[in-house]
Amino acid sequence: AQTVTQSQPEMSVQEAETVTLSCTYDTSESDYYLFWYKQPPSRQMILVIRQEAYKQQNATENRFSVNFQKAAKSFSLKISDSQLGDAAMYFCAYRYSSYNNNDMRFGAGTRLTVKP
Amino acid sequence: NAGVTQTPKFQVLKTGQSMTLQCAQDMNHEYMSWYRQDPGMGLRLIHYSVGAGITDQGEVPNGYNVSRSTTEDFPLRLLSAAPSQTSVYFCASRWTENTEAFFGQGTRLTVV
């Protein structure tokens, strides 16, 4: 079974600094997707960034970028120039690519605090 | 554009009661799913559907039923509520197997 592990229950960063959130996963599949979701206190799940496993290039969305290491099954999220609005729970998620698969596996989450 | 709409946002049930959590999406998405979120455990899949008339079980299906009679709606039924079902429930939808999932705002359910 696929599992997703986030080893950092809590992280803290100073405003304008850079922080990296860790995620590892376990799978025997070769074609899959990885995601980072942000959950602010409003409870809304917001997609931050996604990575297709077949792409070697790391995904980037403005201040958010990932370090995808397929062989090591590692998928870390880097937040640059951290802002107060980045404070939230961050979830790493995995889904393997299949027509009839709707099973997204989530990690337990990392709570990010941003200090002014 | 409403996206994914869940109702109600909050609910308190007594043990043994039944109820239905509603989920509707207006994006014509084929894939819909229900998750529960418990502290320290992330989100876990309860049931999912890959199209109208097609449903399947996820990781934690016991105590829940679903049906998908239309593309837009995917209700989740609690047959006989138990305190272990106290959780936050999320409905999600997506267009294809290759696209991102959109989530509703969640329903906080408390069973006493």
Description of the molecule:
The complex is a heterodimer of chains A (116) and B (112). Chain A is mostly beta strands and 116 residues long. Chain A is 0% helix and 52% strand. Chain A contains no helices and 12 strands. In chain A, the strands form 3 sheets. In chain A, strands 2, 5, 6, 10, 11 and 12 form a 6-stranded mixed beta sheet that branches. With 112 residues, chain B is an all-beta fold. In chain B, the strands form 2 sheets. In chain B, strands 2, 4, 5, 6, 9, 10 and 11 form a 7-stranded mixed beta sheet that branches. Chain B is globular. The termini of chain B are far apart. Chains A and B meet through strand 11 of A and strand 4, strand 5 and strand 9 of B.
Order of helices and strands of chain A: EEEEEEEEEEEE
Class derived from helix and strand content of chain A: mainly beta
Number of DSSP strand runs of chain B: 11
Overall pLDDT score of chain A = 93
Rg result of chain A: 14 Å
Gross morphology of chain B: globular
The largest pleated sheet of chain A is described as: 6 strands, mixed
Identify the overall geometry of chain A. Answer: globular
> Could you estimate the helical fraction of the residues of chain B in percent?
under 10%
How would you concisely characterize the structure shown here?
By secondary structure, chain A is mainly beta. Helices cover 0% and strands 52% of the residues of chain A.
Topology of helices and strands:
The complex is a heterodimer of chains A (116) and B (112).
Chain A: E1 3-5, E2 10-14, E3 19-21, E4 24-26, E5 32-39, E6 46-52, E7 60-61, E8 64-69, E9 74-79, E10 88-96, E11 105-106, E12 110-115
Parallel strand pairs in A: 2-12
Antiparallel strand pairs in A: 1-4, 3-9, 5-6, 5-10, 7-8, 8-9, 10-11, 10-12
Chain B: E1 4-7, E2 10-13, E3 19-25, E4 31-37, E5 43-51, E6 54-57, E7 64-66, E8 76-78, E9 87-94, E10 102-103, E11 107-111
Parallel strand pairs in B: 2-11
Antiparallel strand pairs in B: 1-3, 3-8, 4-5, 4-9, 5-6, 7-8, 9-10, 9-11
